[in-house]
Design goal:
The chain is α/β, with parallel strands linked by helices. The protein has a domain of about 160 residues: TIM Barrel (Alpha-Beta Barrel), CATH 3.20.20. The protein contains eleven helices and twelve strands. β2, α2 and β3 form a beta-alpha-beta unit. The longest helix is centred in the middle third of the chain and has 17 residues. The chain is globular, with a radius of gyration of 20 Å.
Length: about 325
């Protein structure tokens, strides 16, 4: 899964942004169409051209900045699809550009299949959403962008909404979930991501950081709402910090270089093989105070899938 940043600038200013703070947005010369074309061609020849996840070639993860504001975004998209007609293309976008219906239609038509787009939402109204995006009109444009994607996506193309869980986001979660169920229950997947405090976000860590246990507890308070979505996932959550009834939603998604294991986790925890581990930024910035080995079996059914290890909870009342 090559992690493929195609444009360093962005049209919102999220407080949790993990991109570098110094000079990154001024590197647009490195992301011209010709430079990106060379990367794609080199990758097709078997050369290592991507910093992250270069060794896994099943799909492309298009990131930024904001990929869709690349001056030749659609041309870049067409290039990747032409060179890799069978590969999944996953686009991480804030969705604002899709407020223009023609842009949404052309994107879906050019990229074809297989294709997924993941769009973050921060709040159930403009005030709460823009408290995090820090960009006027971004709520209205993201909502309209999602509506246009619903209208113009091709059969088989998937839309995912991402909720980046920080201490700020937790205050708005109830209202956001109500909006999603009222208007966007059609999305293929809702993903909760525990924060990664890196890059720009490090400057705001005192406002953002809370423990995984606190975060998981906030999600668990809305447990009855989760089953009303088509699919729900939790990314970057250690099992020991997460109520057992949420375990079937937990996925192992972190690359090995981002993960560490604390004392007892590797040798004593009964669910070490099913756990994602501990994100290094969580240990560095929060101290990972709630990480501890699980020493007793839980009433869960394992799936055998290394990415989605818990199939079900046999006791639905288990916390």
């Amino acid at each position: 899964m090559p992690d493929f940043p195609i444009w360093p600038q962005c049209n919102i200013a999220c407080v949790f942004c993990s991109n570098p703070t110094e000079g990154y947005r001024e590197t647009t010369g490195m992301y011209s169409y010709e430079e990106l074309k060379k990367k794609v061609e080199d990758y097709k020849r078997g050369l290592q051209t991507f910093v992250k996840f270069d060794e896994v070639g099943d799909y492309f993860n298009l990131t930024g900045g904001e990929p869709t504001i690349h001056p030749e975004f659609l041309r870049v998209l067409a290039l990747i699809r032409t060179e890799f007609p069978a590969n999944l293309i996953r686009l991480l976008s804030n969705g604002r550009m899709f407020a223009e219906a023609n842009f949404a239609r052309r994107t879906c038509g050019i990229v074809g299949l297989p294709f997924e787009i993941a769009v973050p939402m921060f709040g159930g109204d403009a005030r709460s959403h823009e408290a995090i995006s820090r960009t006027p009109l971004s709520f209205q444009q993201t909502v309209q962008g999602l509506r246009n994607l619903a209208k113009h996506r091709l059969p088989g193309q998937k839309v995912e909404i991402r909720i980046i869980m920080t201490k700020v986001q937790a205050r708005f979660l109830g209202g956001l979930l109500e909006l999603l169920l009222a208007e966007f229950a059609w999305v293929d997947r809702v993903v909760f991501l525990f924060e990664e405090i890196e890059g720009f976000a490090e400057h705001y860590k005192d406002r953002l950081v809370f423990t995984q246990s606190e975060c998981a507890s906030v999600i668990d308070r809305h447990f009855d709402m989760l089953s009303r979505f088509r699919e729900v996932r939790l990314y970057h959550f250690s099992l020991c910090t997460t109520p057992t009834r949420l375990w079937p939603y937990v996925w192992r998604t972190l690359a090995g270089f981002k993960v560490t294991w604390l004392d007892g986790c590797r040798t004593r925890c009964l669910y070490r093989e099913q756990c994602v581990g501990v994100h290094r930024s969580y240990e560095r910035h929060a101290g990972a105070p709630d990480i501890s080995p699980i020493l007793e079996r839980r009433p869960v059914e394992l799936s055998g899938d290394p990415y989605h290890p818990i199939r079900a909870v046999n006791d639905p009342t288990s916390l």
